[in-house]
Amino acid sequence: MRRLLRQVRREDGTSLIELVTVMLVLSTILGALTTAFVQGMNAELHTSNRFRSQINAGMALDRLRKDVHCASAITPTGAATAISLTVPSGCPTAGVTTINWCALGSGTRYTLYRQTSVTCTSSSKPYADYLTSSSVFAYTAPVQDVSLGTLHVDLPVNPDPTKPADAYRLTDDIVLRNTLRG
Fold first, then answer.
1. Is the dihedral angle over the CA atoms 79, 60, 171, 144 positive or is it negative?
2. Which of 11, 27, 152, 177 holds its CA 20 to 30 A away from the CA of 102?
3. CA-CA distance, 140 to 180, in Å (whole number)?
4. Cα–Cα distances in Å, from 54 out to 14, 61, 135?
5. Dihedral sign (CA 110, 112, 118, 123)
6. Is residue 154 classed as helix, strand or coil in its secondary structure?
7. Which whole-number Å values give the CA distances from 157 to 54, 64, 111, 138, 167, in the listed order?
8. 3-state DSSP: the chain helix, strand, coil percent, rounded to 5?
9. Which residues pair with 130 in a beta bridge?
10. Domain ranges of the chain
11. Rounded to whole angstroms, how far apart are CA atoms 60 and 164?
12. What's the CA gap between 106 and 108, in Å, rounded?
C-alpha cells in the first residue's frame, strides 16, 4: 500500500520525447480519419449529383413524351439541337400552339430547356442538366401510307465528364399520334 501511495505522490511527468511521440501517433491517426471522412463526403456528393441528373433526365423525357404525343408537327426534320412542336387546339396545353425544346450550353455540359410560344433560351424552364451533347433530337417525318412521324430522343447524361464510366444514356423513339400518314 505504501509503495502505491509513493507512486501517486511522485511529481514526475512525462518526458518531452514521450509527449512528441504520442502527438505524432495521434496526428497520424487523425489525419487518416480526416482523409477518410473527406473522401466519403466527396463520394456522397458525386453519387447525389449522378442520381439527381438521371432523375431529371427521366422527368424531362416524360414531359417531352407528353408534348410530342399531342403534337401534330415537329420542325426541323433530321438531327437537331432544338425542335418546335405544333400543338393542335384539342391538347391540354391551355391555349399554347407552339412548344419549343432546346439543348443549350457548351463544351461537355448542356441543359435541356422547354419554352412555350417563343424561342427557347437559357432563361426558359430547365428540365435536364449535365447533358454531354447538344444533338439530342432526330425527327423522321411521316411516310405516306406507311408510318407516323417519329422523334428519336437521346439524352447522354454525365455530371462528371472526367469519369466516362459514370455516363448514363436515356433514349426513346416517340411517335406523333396526331400526324397523318399521307
1. negative
2. 177
3. 13
4. 58, 11, 18
5. negative
6. strand
7. 7, 16, 10, 17, 6
8. 35, 30, 30
9. none
10. 28-175
11. 22
12. 6
Geometric angle at alpha carbon 60, from 55 and 131, rounded to 5°:
75
Residue 176: all three cell numbers together: 406523333
User: Which cell numbers hold the place of 141?
Assistant: 417525318
6 — alpha (psi -120 to 50), left (phi > 0) or beta?
alpha
Strands (E), the chain: 73-75, 78-80, 82-86, 98-106, 109-116, 125-131, 137-140, 150-157, 168-175
Q: What is the pLDDT along the chain (182 residues), one digit of tens a residue?
A: 888 888 777 777 778 899 999 999 999 999 999 999 999 999 999 999 999 999 999 999 999 999 998 888 888 978 889 999 988 877 777 678 889 999 999 888 999 999 987 788 888 899 999 999 999 999 988 887 788 889 999 999 999 888 888 899 999 999 988 776 65
**What pTM was estimated for this model as a whole?**
0.77
Answer yes or no: are the C-beta atoms of 149 and 174 closer than 8 Å: no
- Judge contact between 155 and 131, C-beta under 8 A: yes
d(CA 101, CA 116): 9
